[in-house]
């Protein structure tokens, strides 16, 4: 036994040792806690820096790929997630699916390649797998333990083999998931709310960039595509053509063709059924042509490379389309495509309640000739198209050099028309309009002619009005016609005063009608030429009235209040929208000559004329039948209560001198119309 | 030098000898011995303790450091098992020092001055490990390597082909693993 003091001392030492052990344990514990805290602090700092870096990269004009790569790198470097991968969402029809972006990041994992392979080998992520489920749910999914049964398909479990945790988060652009980021680790990583929030903020940043890039690419797309049909526009077509041309210079045996397509009856649809119907028609036409081209592509491809279409369908404007057929073997391929396009347009189109038929005139230019610029090729295809049109439309024509002259003659005519205006080369002829019951001349329709030299033949409008319209010269020509007709009528009214003064009708083209100061212009002409009020009539076609019915109603009403009558010319030939007719204070419907000409043998034409006459009477309008050529026609028209007529049966269009002579003779007792 | 090294040295000395031995070492070097893993301490403190230990235990400083390294590994394992668990072999463990362990140390202790080893495969077999540090602790590196080998149930042959202690510009250690030899 130790002495008591010593025993006490030993006890004391024992207690001290225990206390020391406790202190040491406490120190170790404190160190461990501190290290853990320091580690967390570091992670948080890193994560905030990560968010900052992603935000900066997203705001600067980094590409989406760069941003994704940077984000994955940073996340893997600053978290325990060892491997990160980005999927992009692709839309196919109404379905969305994921594809690998090919952007990966990894930190210290030996199974990178294996995982990549498993993720890529199946082309797209496992249906119902983690990334797919994230896309579907639109929410982040955290799998803290991938080794236990997670309810994923077996193939997904195989893909995740070697991992212990996995995590995926959706990236939204707008209201859609546009990408999914997936992370895996071979460590167990418990759900970390702070990290999750951080990832959500990062996803938002990436989404913003995706949004912006989409908007940018939309802008680029918009600048190079037609908004109505979504087809490439002229600029993009020229670009593709330039490339084809450059390639053709390098490799001359690989040729290409340009098809210039112009719809034959488009303008009428647009004018009579309105622009919405016209737009709808264009969309349907494009769908059919595209399908025809796809079909052609399938035939032509035969194991060729899968990248890039060798056919570009573009809309140059209006109803003009072009097709670039690239890498064709021989010109017959271009003919086959043109033929297919025409066949595909053969069936009528359903527009609202109407069945509409259109056909196409197609001009073809082949790269074989020595072309230096894309414009030359388009010009030639355009010329060939014009030839197709002049041959009656609904056909295709391959360009040949003789057409160059045709193009040149169009240009020449434009120049000549300009000088004709300057040199006063236009003349007016006047065709009488008579009251059928009495055969009395009540007025005239003014018709323009062109005499290019004093000794030359008259040129009729069918030969120059189209070019005048295309070039815009129709506006000054029309203005001249109006003034000339009014001033001549003014003198006629003074020379031949009547109880019901003579009237004069002037044709107005749609381009003239669409001038904003039209009413003002006409008002000025009326007052300056002292034509009697209420004796000027303007003839517009149905198509003009249907262009913009609200404006038409306003303009016609203004004209009416200024004492100017409005007639609908060629009534019955367009797509009559009778429902609009009552909205306009129209004075006269002019029955088209095609009905008048068939009235005495064709029941249908008779029915149409009768209907128009009844319609006019009900709406309080007058009716003028055009193209009256026989006595029988005149008699039939009278019996239908048709009040007025014009045509060769009464008189052809006459020059001013002949008009005076005719009017003088009418002041005598009524002559009988010459029999035919 | 990080406090953890001093803590480990104390633990190793105390468990193989006794507390008095550690006290004597502190006394001989004039150090108060208050070290925490959170702190950093002068390198000369470690040099002094190692020199004293060598004198006291009748070993060279090289032998003290090597032995200390060997003994420190099980203690490091008990504190940081993750570093070992994530690596399957001595070789990969060594390689992870640059890529994982030291980066992790820096995360917790931003100013920590940890060495970077230059690893390369020796065409003749084995791994070459270059080491440059004014601390010249190649013996400790050898001890750590051998301790790790024991942990993984392997053996290594560790050869100092160049050594700063012999006037070389750097240390170049050749490490041959038992797994290498079995192939």
TrEMBL record, chain A:
It comes from the Bacteria. Residues 410-667 form the EAL domain. Coiled coil: none annotated. Residues 254-401 form the GGDEF domain. It holds the Pfam family GAF_2. InterPro entries: Biofilm_reg_signaling, EAL_dom, EAL_sf, GAF, GAF-like_dom_sf, GGDEF_dom, Nucleotide_cyclase, Rev_trsase/Diguanyl_cyclase. NCBIfam families: GGDEF (TIGR00254). This is Putative signal transduction protein with EAL and GGDEF domain. It comes from Granulicella aggregans.
TrEMBL record, chain B:
InterPro entries: H-NOX_domain_sf, Heme_NO-bd, NO_sig/Golgi_transp_ligand-bd, V4R. It comes from the Bacteria. One of its GO terms (molecular function) is heme binding. Pfam families: HNOB. Gene3D superfamilies: H-NOX domain. Residues 116-177 form the 4-vinyl reductase 4VR domain. This is 4-vinyl reductase 4VR domain-containing protein. It comes from Granulicella aggregans.
């Amino acid at each position: 036994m130790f002495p008591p003091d010593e025993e006490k001392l030993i006890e004391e030492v024992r207690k001290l040792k225990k206390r020391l052990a406790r202190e040491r344990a406490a120190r170790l514990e404190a160190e461990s806690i501190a290290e853990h805290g320091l580690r967390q602090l570091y992670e948080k700092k890193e994560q905030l820096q990560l968010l900052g870096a992603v935000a900066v990269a997203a705001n600067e004009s980094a590409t989406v790929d760069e941003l994704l790569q940077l984000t994955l790198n940073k996340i893997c470097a600053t978290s325990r997630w060892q491997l990160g991968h980005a999927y992009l969402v692709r839309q196919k029809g109404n379905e969305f699916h994921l594809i690998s972006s090919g952007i990966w990041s990894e930190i210290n994992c030996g199974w990178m390649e294996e995982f990549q392979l498993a993720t890529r080998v199946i082309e797209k992520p496992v249906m119902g797998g983690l990334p797919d489920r994230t896309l579907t749910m639109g929410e982040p999914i955290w799998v803290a333990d991938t080794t236990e049964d997670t309810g994923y398909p077996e193939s997904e479990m195989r893909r995740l083999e070697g991992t212990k945790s996995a995590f995926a988060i959706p990236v939204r652009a707008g209201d859609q998931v546009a990408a999914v980021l997936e992370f895996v680790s071979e460590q167990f990583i418990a759900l970390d709310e702070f990290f999750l929030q951080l990832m959500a903020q990062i996803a938002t940043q990436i989404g913003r960039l995706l949004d912006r890039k989409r908007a940018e690419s939309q802008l680029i797309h918009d600048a190079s595509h037609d908004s109505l049909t979504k087809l490439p526009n002229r600029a993009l077509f020229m670009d593709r053509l330039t490339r084809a041309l450059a390639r053709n210079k390098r490799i001359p045996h690989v040729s290409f063709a340009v098809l210039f397509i112009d719809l034959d009856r488009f303008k009428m649809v647009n004018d009579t059924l309105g622009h919405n119907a016209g737009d709808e028609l264009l969309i349907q036409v494009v769908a059919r042509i595209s399908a025809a081209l796809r079909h052609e592509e399938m035939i032509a491809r035969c194991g060729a490379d899968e990248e890039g279409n060798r056919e570009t369908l573009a809309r140059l404007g209006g109803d003009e389309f072009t097709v670039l057929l690239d890498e064709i073997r021989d010109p017959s391929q271009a003919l086959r495509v043109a033929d297919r396009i025409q066949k595909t347009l053969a069936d009528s189109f359903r527009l609202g309640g109407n069945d509409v038929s259109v056909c196409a005139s197609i001009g073809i230019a082949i790269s074989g000739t020595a072309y230096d610029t894309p414009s030359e090729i388009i010009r030639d295809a355009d010329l060939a198209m014009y030839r197709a049109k002049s041959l009656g439309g609904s056909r295709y024509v391959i360009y040949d050099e003789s057409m160059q002259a045709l193009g040149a003659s169009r240009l020449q005519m434009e120049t000549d028309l300009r000088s004709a205006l300057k040199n006063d080369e236009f003349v007016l002829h006047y065709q009488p309009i008579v009251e059928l019951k009495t055969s009395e001349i009540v007025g005239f329709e003014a018709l323009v002619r062109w005499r290019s030299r004093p000794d030359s033949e008259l040129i009729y409008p069918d030969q120059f009005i189209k070019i005048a319209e295309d070039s815009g010269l129709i506006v000054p020509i029309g203005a001249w016609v109006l003034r000339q007709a009014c001033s001549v009528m003014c003198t006629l009214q003074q020379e031949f005063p009547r109880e019901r003064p003579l009237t004069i009708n002037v044709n107005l083209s749609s381009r003239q009608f669409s001038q904003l100061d039209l009413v003002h212009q006409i008002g000025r002409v009326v007052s300056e030429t002292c034509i009697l009020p209420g004796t000027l009539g303007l003839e517009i076609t149905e198509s003009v009235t249907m262009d913009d019915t609200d404006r038409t109603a306003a303009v016609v009403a203004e004209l009416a209040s200024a004492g100017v009558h409005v007639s609908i010319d060629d009534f019955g030939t367009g797509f009559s929208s009778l429902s609009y007719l009552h909205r306009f204070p129209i004075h006269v419907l002019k029955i088209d000559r095609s009905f008048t000409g068939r009235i005495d043998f064709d029941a249908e034409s008779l029915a149409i004329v009768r209907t128009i006459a009844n319609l006019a009477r009900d709406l309080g309008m007058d009716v003028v039948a055009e193209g009256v050529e026989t006595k029988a026609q005149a008699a039939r028209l009278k019996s239908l209560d048709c009040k007025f007529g014009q045509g060769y049966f009464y008189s052809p269009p006459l020059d001013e001198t002949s008009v005076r002579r005719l009017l003088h003779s009418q002041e005598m007792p009524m002559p009988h119309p010459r029999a035919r | 030098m990080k406090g953890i090294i001093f803590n480990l040295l104390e633990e190793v000395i105390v468990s193989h000898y006794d507390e008095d031995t550690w006290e004597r070492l502190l006394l001989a070097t004039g150090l108060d011995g208050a070290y925490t893993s959170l702190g950093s301490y002068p390198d000369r403190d470690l040099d002094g303790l190692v020199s004293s230990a060598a004198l006291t235990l009748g070993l060279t400083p090289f032998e003290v450091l090597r032995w200390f390294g060997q003994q420190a590994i099980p203690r490091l394992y008990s504190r940081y098992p993750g570093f070992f668990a994530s690596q399957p072999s001595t070789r990969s463990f060594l390689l992870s020092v640059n890529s994982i362990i030291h980066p992790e140390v820096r995360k917790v202790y931003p100013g920590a001055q940890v060495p970077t080893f230059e690893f390369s495969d020796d065409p003749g077999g084995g791994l070459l490990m270059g080491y440059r540090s004014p601390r010249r602790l190649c013996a400790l590196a050898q001890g750590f390597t051998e301790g790790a080998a024991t942990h993984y149930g392997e053996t290594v042959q560790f050869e100092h082909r160049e050594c700063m202690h012999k006037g070389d510009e750097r240390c170049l250690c050749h490490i041959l693993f038992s797994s290498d030899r079995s192939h």
